[in-house]
TrEMBL record:
An MF annotation (GO) of this entry: magnesium ion binding
UniProt name for this protein: Fructose-1,6-bisphosphatase class 1
Organism the protein comes from: Rubrivivax rivuli
EC number: 3.1.3.11
InterPro entries named in the record: FBPase_C_dom, FBPase_class-1, FBPase_N, FBPtase
Main location as per UniProt: cytoplasm
Subunit structure, as described in the record: Homotetramer.
Binding site for Mg(2+) 1: E91, D113, L115
Amino acid sequence: MKRISLTQYLVEQQREHGHIPGQLRLLIEVVARACKRIAIAVNKGALGEVLGSAGSENVQGEVQKKLDIISNEVLIETNEWGGHLAAMASEEMDSIHVVPNRYPQGEYLLLFDPLDGSSNIDVNVSIGTIFSVLRKVGHTRGVSEEDFHQPGKHQAAAGYCVYGPQTMLVLTVGDGVAMFTLDRETGSWVLTQDGVQIPEDTKEFAINMSNMRHWAPPVKQYIDECLQGRDGPRGKDFNMRWVASMVADVHRILTRGGIFMYPWDQREPDKPGKLRLMYEANPMAFIVEQAGGMATNGRERILDIQPEKLHQRVSVVLGSKNEVKRVTDLHLAAGPAA
Ligand SMILES: O=P(O)(O)OC[C@H]1O[C@](O)(COP(=O)(O)O)[C@@H](O)[C@@H]1O
Ligand SMILES: [Mg+2]
Ligand SMILES: [Mg+2]
């Protein structure tokens, strides 16, 4: 098999399509390098003393794990000096991190969920890193949080790394989705799948069923019809999977299809959902769309949502096109309140 490295892939994309500027290519390579360092820490587990809680809370009031903090630091440290970024934002930081004056300033903004699936860290189940890249628009000096408030359709690149039985990097620069597997012996990312396509139909759904009694009627109806299997209106049996690491659930969907949902629920009616728009939903929605799937908040395309806050939350329905469409149609038919 001819081995194509991440560098080679990006250079070829640049040559063929001309839409990956040098700074963006560098940025992606640096993020991939940071993910490699995080993978090494994840791999060491208890031997590296990286498991367990850090005893602090993030801006959303969630208890931080040691790996949440380590991964955040690795991403900042590897990215801030390269000259490709103006600023970064993270799930684990209250506000944006502007690249210090001692380093050259770049034109991109990087957002990340440094460690996704925190509840799975200590139980040796797949976790990951999610990232989104925006271009700093406008030519004003300096950078502010408002510069980040761009809808997901403006992302220049997005990706995630999954730390599972294999460490994989999944990437889109707006021209399809490519998957790379980390060769631990050589330390390089090797292209293992290009032109990833999500099947349009599926018999597999992913949702945290323990929240069922709190869901809105359209979500209840959709899942109820799936559960009725071949005796119900769908006329086929469904299977369920829920890893509780979005990266792992989305990775399965990219590989063999499926629908993923983390919907609004009535426990906290003012909160649109659990997942964060800018560094979880947007990058995943970009990847899913680039692989032929669909991603909505139940009503509108996630990539069209105009963000108002860095840590804004959103309801998420993504994956195989025909199923996401079905859930979205049920919401639209139910009217504005549901
Ligand atoms: O524990 P729950 O409610 O099933 O939530 C699981 C979801 O929460 C998350 O773990 C949130 O991500 P973080 O670990 O980055 O906070 C998602 O990855 C996952 O889909
Ligand atoms: Mg997350
Ligand atoms: Mg996280």
